[in-house]
Amino acid sequence: MTNTTAQIEAQPKLVALFASDVHLHPSLPRTTEFFFEFLRMQAHLAEQLYLLGDLFEYWAGDDDMETAYHQQVIAELKSVSNAGTGLFWMAGNRDFLVGERFAKAIGAELLGDIYTANIAGHAITMTHGDAQCTDDTGYMQFRAMVRQTGWQEQFLLLPLTERKTIIEGLRKGSKMEQKEKTAAIMDVNPEAIKQLFLDHHADTLIHGHTHRPARHQHAEGLRYVLPDWECDIAPEEMRGGWLAIYENGEIIFHHLNGDTSSSFTPQINTPP
């Protein structure tokens, strides 16, 4: 996935990068290393890096930062912001408990659930994507509960080990429930997407969450869906990548296998 120096010099200036659903975890060493390589070889060249949720498999609270693995992730992200790249963090459905302590440690700005910016001539609205899966009513009820400040404050008062046990139980339960749900229910709702375009006057929408990488043409504009990352399975099934915007306004998908394209061919889908 590493570009040659000649290729880098031939490209227009790299303005912004977008990635999501990396699902970092100590049990996924190859995925972790591929993400670190992305930070070292790509993010250092960009003016901005937007991480749009689920960077971690789960996050139990900022008091879990001291593990050796999390310290390694923090050091790699901090090197990006130290290099002058603006680092922006958006919560996903797995790491919404990331707080100011973590953001300060990596030199990032925490974004809300929806963020709009003008980048290289595009009016871009970004979101993780789970809030637009409105057909999954059970998940939407759960999401509304755990995103409440009061619920989070009470949860974070529990011992860290207890929180992790609860989260693991929720993840197992979620996987069981997903077997009973149709693919359509777990995808974004078309009307919710349309409303995002209209409410934020966007011509481009970028999100992750669904693990269905693609470029969609809507009447209101273009929608880019970011891929999830999985590099610890067979090489031929490896998936992942990022979206790049250059100073000339060009928007390009970069696959982990080194391919580039203006649209993603959907890969093997896994539940979000």
Automatic annotation (TrEMBL):
Mn(2+) 2 binds at residues 54, 93, 128, 209. CDD domains: MPP_YbbF-LpxH. The keyword NAD does not apply. Keywords: Cell inner membrane, Cell membrane, Hydrolase, Lipid A biosynthesis, Lipid biosynthesis, Lipid metabolism, Manganese, Membrane, Metal-binding. InterPro entries: Calcineurin-like_PHP (IPR004843), LpxH-like (IPR043461), Metallo-depent_PP-like (IPR029052), UDP-diacylglucosamine_Hdrlase (IPR010138). It is a peripheral membrane protein. SUPFAM superfamilies: Metallo-dependent phosphatases. GO terms for molecular function: manganese ion binding; UDP-2,3-diacylglucosamine hydrolase activity. Binds 2 Mn(2+) ions per subunit in a binuclear metal center. Its main location: membrane. Coiled coil: none annotated. Its cofactor is Mn(2+). Pathway: Glycolipid biosynthesis; lipid IV(A) biosynthesis; lipid IV(A) from (3R)-3-hydroxytetradecanoyl-[acyl-carrier-protein] and UDP-N-acetyl-alpha-D-glucosamine: step 4/6. One of its GO terms (cellular component) is extrinsic component of plasma membrane. It catalyses: UDP-2-N,3-O-bis[(3R)-3-hydroxytetradecanoyl]-alpha-D-glucosamine + H2O = 2-N,3-O-bis[(3R)-3-hydroxytetradecanoyl]-alpha-D-glucosaminyl 1-phosphate + UMP + 2 H(+). It is found in: Cell inner membrane. Substrate binds at residues 93-94, 136, 174, 178, 181, 209. Mn(2+) 1 binds at residues 21, 23, 54, 211. Hydrolyzes the pyrophosphate bond of UDP-2,3-diacylglucosamine to yield 2,3-diacylglucosamine 1-phosphate (lipid X) and UMP by catalyzing the attack of water at the alpha-P atom. Involved in the biosynthesis of lipid A, a phosphorylated glycolipid that anchors the lipopolysaccharide to the outer membrane of the cell. PANTHER family: UDP-2,3-DIACYLGLUCOSAMINE HYDROLASE, UDP-2,3-DIACYLGLUCOSAMINE HYDROLASE-RELATED. Belongs to the LpxH family. This is UDP-2,3-diacylglucosamine hydrolase. It comes from Undibacterium piscinae.
